[in-house]
Write a structure and sequence with these properties.
The chain is mainly α. It has helices at about 25-30, 65-70, 75-105, 110-115, 120-130, 130-135, 140-155, 165-190, 195-225, 230-250, 265-280, 280-300, 300-305, 305-310, 315-340, 345-355, 370-380, 385-395, 405-430, 435-460, 460-480.
Length: about 475
């Protein structure tokens, strides 16, 4: 998943960051803004509006920098704690629900389907309900999403709920998830501004997500040794309710981004029109694909970890290491890039790292043993650190009134392509050796990444600005 000065000509440009982050517009200023007939994509050459050097929710100029500056924002601390609680609850419930479905049916297929249903509905919720993120105030959306998820999980606890009902409720929670995540991503720009604090805040939430996968499954396993599956699922209800309380009382109430009172459009129409506007813009589409496609191919070794461990004769403990290695590499690289590199350097590494991030998977051509495979997976995980700079480019490219829908669609697409990547890797492994499938994912993924790097450079607003600036200057002289 920032700049402090303009990037080189061959790197997508982002506006220079001031000494302290520019806060988001106040609710009062938003309330008096003239509503437009509909969202329009922002001119990349238009200068950023000036703002005060400090403001509510932002640290003072002499406050700590880096991740410490992000935690200095009280609202972010509430969002961070809510994210940590709800994420751990979700991970525990996924494991417990899988065990519960298997206990009730004895079917490995239905048990596996329980996991798959956590990914598949993302594209539905992210496409059809994305308009919620901009149509209603962010805090209200986040709290309602948490309460709806808590209600769904509470129904799972009822012994009379059939297996089909459990799976349907799992789908509903998964459909709500992209709306919640997209709204929260957009709300971070209100809480932290649109500069470096936002980028580091997003980085922290990603680190928590990666860590929760490692800690949550372990905690879930421990809980299932002392509680029944339904007892473990109860923990998720509590975490959702705690998350809702933290967001309700720990964040400010801000107005909705999009003015919908005069448009008369339905939620579905707004969601679909937002998707058309976002995907119809060449720059935003290229950046979104740069989030999606590398993630689609990098999941192959994780999806095939069990058969690969069997292929090389590794132990069950080695399988656990294969599943953890990529997350460990990602967390380490993200912490380093976020804390050691300046915003300008984070921007500079986006395209080079995105272009080569999947190359470590080519090691699988030689069917490596456990040590070399772990090193390759850790390096592939570290390659995801380019997303920190990409976050800044994306938020700069998307206009404010479309931001919630754009980020909801980004989240939905990311989860969907990862599920698709896992399925395609499994399908390919039916016909080719596992190590060849993983290496092939690295080759095809690198080719796709290189094409996207070229496209992102072509849509660089800096290059457009240079050309149009000269032409515009000539036109201005002539007109006078």
């Amino acid at each position: 998943m920032p700049t402090d000065s303009p990037a080189p000509a061959d790197t997508p440009r982002t506006p220079p960051a001031p000494a302290a982050q520019v806060p988001a517009p106040s609710p009062e200023r938003d309330a008096h803004r003239d509503p437009s007939p509909g969202p329009t994509l922002r001119d990349p050459d238009a200068p950023a509006a000036p703002g005060p050097a400090s403001g509510p929710g932002l640290p003072a100029p002499d406050a700590p920098r880096g991740y410490g500056a992000v935690f200095a924002v009280a609202e972010f601390r509430a969002v961070f704690a809510a994210h940590l609680l709800s994420l751990l609850g979700v991970v525990v419930s996924e494991l417990a629900l899988t065990v519960l479905v298997y206990d009730l049916t004895g079917s490995p297929l239905l048990s596996a389907l329980t996991f798959a249903l956590g990914l598949l509905p993302y594209i539905v919720g992210g496409t059809l309900f994305a308009g919620v993120a901009d149509r209603y105030p962010a805090r209200r959306v986040l709290v309602v999403c948490d309460l709806l998820c808590a209600a769904c999980v509470a129904v799972m606890l009822v012994p009379a709920t059939p297996v089909a009902g459990l799976l349907a409720l799992r789908c509903l929670v998964a459909a709500i998830a992209p709306v919640f995540t997209g709204t929260r991503m957009a709300a971070l720009t209100d809480i932290l501004g649109e500069g470096d604090l936002y980028v580091l805040g997003r980085s922290l939430l990603r680190i928590v997500s990666q860590s929760a996968m490692l800690i949550g499954f372990g905690a879930g396993g421990v809980l299932l040794t002392v509680l029944s599956p339904r007892g473990a699922i109860t923990v998720t209800v509590v975490t959702f309710l705690c998350s809702a309380a933290l967001l309700r009382f720990g964040t400010r109430d801000r107005p909705a981004r999009a003015a919908t009172g005069d448009s008369g459009g339905t939620l579905l129409r707004e969601s679909l029109s937002g998707a058309r506007l976002v995907l119809g813009d060449r720059r935003i589409r290229a950046l979104m694909l740069l989030f999606w496609l590398p993630a689609m191919f990098v999941v192959a070794p994780e999806a095939l970890a069990a058969p690969y461990a069997d292929e090389i004769g590794a132990s069950p403990a080695a399988l656990g290491l294969l599943l953890c290695a990529m997350a460990v590499g990602h967390i380490g690289a993200e912490l380093f890039v976020g804390s050691a590199l300046s915003p300008r350097n984070r921007s500079r590494i986006v395209l080079p790292v995105a272009a080569v991030g999947l190359l470590p998977l080519l090691v699988y051509v030689v069917r490596p043993g456990l040590p070399l495979a772990l090193a390759a997976l850790a390096l592939a995980g570290a390659g995801a650190a380019y997303v920190i700079g990409l976050d800044q480019w994306f938020v700069d490219a998307v206009p404010q009134e479309l931001r919630g829908r754009a980020m909801t669609l980004l989240t939905a697409g990311l989860m969907t392509v990862q599920g698709l990547g896992m399925a395609l890797a499994g399908l390919a492994a039916e016909f080719f050796p596992v190590h060849q499938v993983v290496a092939g994912s690295g080759i095809i993924g690198t080719a796709c990444a290189l094409l996207l790097v070229v496209e992102v450079r072509r849509t660089d607003p800096g290059r457009t600005a240079d050309t149009e600036g000269r032409d515009g200057a000539d036109r201005h002289v002539t007109s006078r």
